[in-house]
Amino acid sequence: MDLLLTTGTSATASASTGGQTGPVTLVALYPGPALRLDSALAVAESNAEAEDMMDSDPRWLPELRNWLSASSVAPGLRSVPVESLRGIMIVEWAGVPLPDGGFLLLGRDDTLERQLRHTLTESRRRYKDLVEVSSDFAWETGPDGTFVFVSHKGALGYPADALIGRDPRSLALEEAEDLPMPFDCRRAIDQTELWLKSADGTPACVVASALPLFGTQGDWIGARGVCRDVTEQVLRSNELARIRNRERLLGHIVHTLRDRLDAAEALAVAATETARALSADGCRIYRAEEGAAGGNGGGRVVLSLVAEFGAKLPEVGTALLDRIANNEGLVTDRLGDVQLIGERTEYRQAANGALLVWRTGDSEPWDEDDRHLMSGVADHIGIAHAHLAYQERLRRLSERDGLTGLFNRRTFFERLEESISRPDSGPSALLYVDLDNFKAVNDLHGHQQGDAVLKAIGTLLSTGVRPGDLPGRLGGDEFVLWLGRTDEAKARIVAERLLNGMRDLAHLSASPEKPLGLSIGIAVHTPGRGESVRELTDRSDAAMYDAKKSGKGHFALAPAYQAAAQASSSDVSPAEPIP
Questions:
Q1: Cα–Cα dist 79/392, whole Å
Q2: C-alpha angle 557/560/565, rounded to 5°?
Q3: pLDDT tens, position by position, 237-290
C-alpha cells in the first residue's frame, strides 16, 4: 500500500497486476523523463518531467515514434535535442518493447556529458593543433627508454618515423653521452638546455621540459615532454656576446692609445694589451720609416720595430714583413711551432706600419673573433702612428731651426745643460762657430743666397756627428757644436775638418775678395770643476773672437777653466790658418 500511495496509483490498478509494480509505477518512479506508449505509439503514461518536455517542445516525440516504428527488434538508444527553458538539452532515450506491443521510453539528460565529451575532444584537438603548428616537438619515451611518440614534424632534421623506437641517447654529442637527459628523467624538469646532434651531424641546442611517467605500482614507465630548438637564438646570442666582448677589448685598447699623451709610450702599452686581448704570447708593433710609407701604388714600405711585448719570437725575415706591409688584409704564417698573424696599419689609405701577434706551442688557431679584433686594433694603431709622426713633427719644429734643421738656441742649451750635468761624461768640447764675410753675401746676392749658405753650414756641422753630439744654430750666422767625450786633440781634428769643408762652399762667397770662412773657438770642458753652461759658452765665444782677430779662417783654443778667475783673452792660443 505504501508503494501505491507513493506513486499515486489506484487500488484497482494494483489488484489487476497481482500487487506487482507495473509499467505505470516504473514511469512514475523513474528519476528522469519516462513514457509508456501503447501499440499505436500513443502516450499511455508519462511522468512530470516528460510532460514538461512535451509542453515546452513537442517536436521530439514524433522523432522518437519514427525511430520506434522503424525498429524491428529492441530499438536500443536514441539521442534527440529538446528545447527547454534552460536551453537546448540532449536527451538520450532507451526504448524497451512491452508485451502489448507498446514501448517503455526512459530518458537521460546527456547534455552535460556530451558537453564534457565535446570539450575533451576539442581540448585534444586544440592540443594536437598547437603541438603541430608550434616550433617545439613533443615526444614520449617508453619503459625501455626509446621514443614511442614524436610529433609528426619530427625533430632535428629527422622525420618522426625515423625517431620512433630510437634511443634518445644516440642523439647526444659524444662529449655529453654520459650526462643526464630529459628523455629518461625521474623527476620533472623545466627549461633545461642541452646540445644534441642533428641529422646532418651539426650540433643543435634545445630547451627541454619533461615529466616522468609512473605506473600504478610506482614503477617508471617513461617520460613525456617537449623540446624547442633554440640553436639559431643561441648562436645569435653567442655572436652578440662575442661582438660585445670584442668591442670591449677594442675599446680598452683604444682608450689606452688615447689616454697617454706620449704616442711612443701608448704604442708600448698597446702592444701589451693587444697580446692579452688576443690571448697571444706576444705582440710587435712596427712603424714605417720616415719617408717610406706607401699608399695604394706607393713604393716598398720599410718597417722598423717600435714596440714589443711577450715571449721571444724567432727571427722574422723581411719577406714576411713585406707581405704584411704590402698586403691589404690579414696575413697568417708559421715559424716552427709559432702561429703568426699580422696586418698592416694605415692612415688615410697610406700604409704606415704593421701589427704582428703570435702564439706558441699547441695554442688554438686564430678564429674569426681574433681576426676581427686584430683588424680593429690595426686601424687604431695606424691612427696612433700618424699621431706619433705628428708629435715628432711638432717636436722638430719646437726643437730645430727651421732653416738649417739644427737644434735651435733653446733646445741646444737645454741639452747641453743635461750633458755637462752628468758626472761620468768625461772631457768634452764646445765649438763656437761664426761665419766670415757672410754679410757681404746678403748685401751682394740677397737673402736667398744667404739662406743657401746657412743651409750648407747646417749640413757641414751635422755631417759625421756621433750620437750624443749636438749641432745647433744660435741665430744669424752663429753656430755651435758640442762634442761629447772629446779631448783637445780630437776637438782640433773636428775644427780642421770644418775649416777644410768650407772649400766646397767657395762658390757661395760674395766675391774672391770676401771669401766665406769660419772662425771657431774651442773650449774643452772637464766635469767636476763646477763650470756652468754660461761660463763654458763664454769661454768658447771668447776663443772664437780671438780666432777671428787672427785673420779669420782660424780656430783658437780657450784656456782651461779656472774657478777663481777666468783666463784673460790674451792667454788664448790662436792656431795657424788653414792654407
A1: 103
A2: 120
A3: 777 766 777 677 777 777 766 766 677 788 888 888 888 888 889 999 999 886
Cα separation, 498 vs 190, in Å, equals: 92
Determine the residue type at 289.
E
Say what the pLDDT of residue 398 is.
84
Pairwise CA distance, residues 279 & 342, whole Å: 15
**What's the burial of 127, exposed, middle or buried (CB within 10 Å: 0-12/13-18/19+)?**
exposed
* Among 476, 528, 469, 467, CA closest to 498: 469
How confident is the model at residue 311, as a pLDDT? 79
Distance CA 420, CA 473 (A): 19
Q: Report yes or no: 282 and 310 within 8 Å, Cβ to Cβ.
A: yes
3-class DSSP state of 308: strand
Give the number of other CB atoms < 10 A from CB of residue 429.
25
* CB-based contacts of 203, cutoff 8 Å, min separation 6: 173, 195, 196, 197, 231
Element (H, E) at 288: strand 282-288
- 355 phi/psi in degrees, rounded to 5: -120, 130
DSSP per-residue letters across 190-233: EEEEEEEE-TTS-EEEEEEEEEEEE-TTS-EEEEEEEEEE-HHH
- 282: phi then psi, degrees, rounded to nearest 5: -170, 165
Sign of CA dihedral 420, 500, 453, 446: positive
Pairing of strands 331-335, 338-347: antiparallel
Q: Which of 503, 520, 523 is nearest to 435 (CA)?
A: 520
What per-residue confidence (pLDDT) applies to 384? 82
Average of per-residue pLDDT across 498-505: 92
Least confident of 84-93, 338-347, 529-538: 84-93
pTM of the model as a whole: 0.48
- The model's pLDDT over 464-475, given as tens digits with 9 standing for 90+, comes to 888 889 999 999
CA angle 71–75–78, rounded 5-degree value = 115
DSSP 554: -
Name which of 462, 443, 566, 572 is nearest 519 in CA terms: 572
Rounded distance between C-alpha atoms, residue 431 and residue 412, angstroms: 13
Residue 562 vs residues 254, 527, 558, 574: alpha-carbon distances, Å: 56, 13, 11, 19
DSSP 138: E
Answer whether 171's CB lies under 8 Å from 227's CB. Answer: no
CA distance 279 to 571: 70
pLDDT given for residue 538 in this prediction: 95
**Grid cell at residue 422:** 752628468
206 contacts 227 by C-beta, under 8 angstroms: yes
